[in-house]
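Exercise 7. Predict the joint structure of the components listed below.
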Amino acid sequence: MSSKEVEILLVEDNLNDAKLTMRALRKNNLANNVHHVVDGEEALDFIFARNKYDGRDVEKKPKVILLDLKLPKVDGLEVLKILKENERTKTIPIVVLTSSNQESDKVRSYDLGANSYIVKPVDFEQFIKAVANLGLYWLLLNELP
Amino acid sequence: MEYLKKILLFFFYINIFSLHAHLPPITHYGGEDTIHVASEPNYPPFCSVNDAGEADGFSVDLFKETAAAVGLQVEFRVDTWNKIKQELIDGKIDALPMVGRSPERELYYDFTFPYHTLHGGVFVRKGTTGINTIEDLKSKEIIVMKGDNTEEYVLRENLSPYVISTKTYTEAFNLLQSGKHDAVIAQRLMGLQLLGLLQIEDIVPLDIDLTTFSQDFSFAVQEGNKGLLAKLNEGLSIIIANGTYDELHKKWFTPEMQRHITFKEKLKIIFKVLIPLIILISIISILILRAEVKRKTKNLNNEVVKRKEIERSIRESETWLRKIIKHNPHFIFIRDEDGIYQIVNEAMAEAYGFAPDEIEGKTDADFIKSESDIIRYKNQDLKIFNNETDRLDIEGSFIDSTGNKRFMQTIKVPFNLLTSGKKAVLGVSSDITNLRKIEAELTQKNEDLEKEINTRINAEKAFMESEITFRSIVESSPLGIHIYHLEDDDRLIFEGANPAADKLIGVDHSQYIGKTIEEAFPALVDTEIPEKYRIAARTGESWQTTQIDYHDDLVNGAFEVSAFQMHPGKVAVLFNNITDRVKAEEQLKDYRDKLELIIEERTRSLIEKTTSYEDSQLALSYLMEDVNEARIELEKVNAQFVAVNQELEAFSYSVSHDLRAPLRAIDGFSKVLEEDYFDKLDENAMECIEIIRNNAKMMGLLINDLLEFSRLSRKEIKFFEIDMNEIITDLVKEFKQNNKDRIIDFKIHDLANIKADRSMIRQVLQNLLSNAIKYSQPRKKAVIECGWTEREQDIVFFVKDNGVGFDIKYKNKLFGVFQRLHLAEEFEGTGVGLAIVQRIINKHGGNVWAEGEVDKGATFYFSIPVEKE
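Solution:
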């Protein structure tokens, strides 16, 4: 673990997608403080400084969480729900980043309090652009309480 | 009389002998001949005129009697003396009844023996002096009647040179009366009579005796008419002898005339009559005086008796007057001008606490305590004494001996004391204390009464108002009202009714007024109703009944009646004509009965039907069971179907999701290669990478479209009224946004609204527009038109472009799945768009078709059926 502050928490089970995402963030100089977890449980452990992440300073919250929906163990929507219901973590902006363009998923995500919903395009160019935009927005422009 | 008689007889005999000698040839007498005689009108009492204008008088009557005695008819005429005098001379008349014998007249008249002697008299105006003897007449103007023997006498005797003759003596006297001339000489008796007749009082006869004027009067005939003369003489004698003459004489001569009897005779009379008369008178006088004395004595005695009587009655009056005064409850007193009480009655004295004799003779100061009273009384008295008034009415008060205040009403009048000659005041006071009290009470009572009256008036007003209200209610009430009053003998008398009553029974009530109820409404006679009314009138117990059927000659119907007391003895009967209602009720009953029958029937048939229904019900239930079974089957199948659907859904979801991931990797890492190793790769390699990437992209699209397509067939279509313009506008904006680099002219007509699934139709339009844009890319300026037309059963929309078009022979292939008419290199696309469009439109019940020409653009149509109302 990096002693540096985690700015972005990337929750993605597909390693390819993860790699590409990292690349996109790197290209935009946003990759420094990205932490990657591969399932929902690990994401929660990280946020709540549990188990593996027991020593982490729980007060230190990431600026944005990029959350894939289809996750093993704890499902993405579940993670979203938990985080948004928790007093301390509900303020963390969560961007649902998923390949599903199902309307129902979208609705459910927003219902649970997702701040944004991005469909992962097949076109990588677009993907990069999307990610870059994300990063720019959530890290640089958006103001958090 | 004897003297006269002698003379008459003498003349009678003479004339008998001269009868034949002097008969004129003109006149013959043989019996009943009529002789014409005339007399003068105004020589009373001898010749005058009666009221009828006929000849009248002593001489006339004498002549008539004379003529009658000898059987002669006489006709008299009246005319002036002078005229008739001449007529006899001329023979126009036969005789004159009164002619004075004179030597002159002897020449042309023949006279009967005289029947009367007259003396002349001198008449003068009263107060005339200077005529005492005949000689005095010498210088006077004398008036006489023309032709009269006085004229002859005056002339003969030459009494005076101044002689005036008038036609009549009336004229003469009038002349004298008027102041003309000095005297009238006429027959004394005649003159006096005439003056009396003429009512001339200021001419009087003088006492001059005209001795030489003494005239005998006879009847005169024409000279020579011996026959008539003889007859007249005869007649005269007869009437003298039989007393007719005396009668006539008595008739015509008043005692006044008798006055001028000769002096001698007078003397004789005096001596013969007067002396014995005197003696008689004396005797009588003495007798009378004696009687008188007796009478007077008697009177005096009577007087004394009367006086005694009066005294007694006066004393009596005094007694009861005293009693009155004494016992009178009023105060009665007489107080003189010195203030001394002459009389005080018991009532007054007692009031002051004294006896009357203790006050009589004293003054106010002696017994009245109040100084102010004393002064007041004195002042009042002074008013009387000073003659300021002769009556004082005073109201005042004083404190009596017992200390009570007494209100007194006093009258004071002057009273002169005859004994002392002093002035006094008579006073009468009545105690009006009680009166005052009563007055006050009365005033109070009056006020109370007035109040009561006012209350009564108000009550009356209220009553009147309520009467009026009652009247108007009665008049305008739609219910009929009959009013009866109960007589003492228990008869109910019809008094009146309101307008509604007449309308309801159809009879004018005026014929019932005054009749008993039995007379007015005979059909009620044997019913309880009149008695009920009587009870109501008497006791106030009201009575009603819901229906009375009444039928008589005038009135027919059913009535709802209620009777109640207006006030004791008067009952008002309110009624309503319910004939119609009863009829209606009966009708209703009929209907109801009929209805019941119908219902019975229906029920019966219903029961029949029900049984058959039940049978069919049973059959139905069996059917239902079957249906149920089928339904259950269907549900099972449905559930399966749903399950399958869900599976499919999950499947396609995971397919799309999972398929995309690797695609992303392919595309992504290809890009990495491209970016990171561009300097190490040649053109070919780059091309390969490009191809890899494109294909990955393609696959992604395919997956999307496939998913879309499959989802579409499972989706439930929802019909709503959708605003096509809104959708189009939205899409156009989007497309413009996404195709900024191109020049596209969108010609969008105003589209109709349709009933369809919004999202699906959106998809349709999106796909069509997308195609239009895609296939018009080669054109510098793309023109895309969108519009609609209305057909009988549907609305047709179209999207037209000026793109590359298509060969019409392949139009059937347009809408196939994955069917393309161009290469992917030319135009990208999976070939699913139109299939989707067709799928959707078919689901809506419409159709899709296209028209086009190679290089000339294409028009795609779709129809949506519309429900025509």
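Discussion. The mean pLDDT of chain A is 81.
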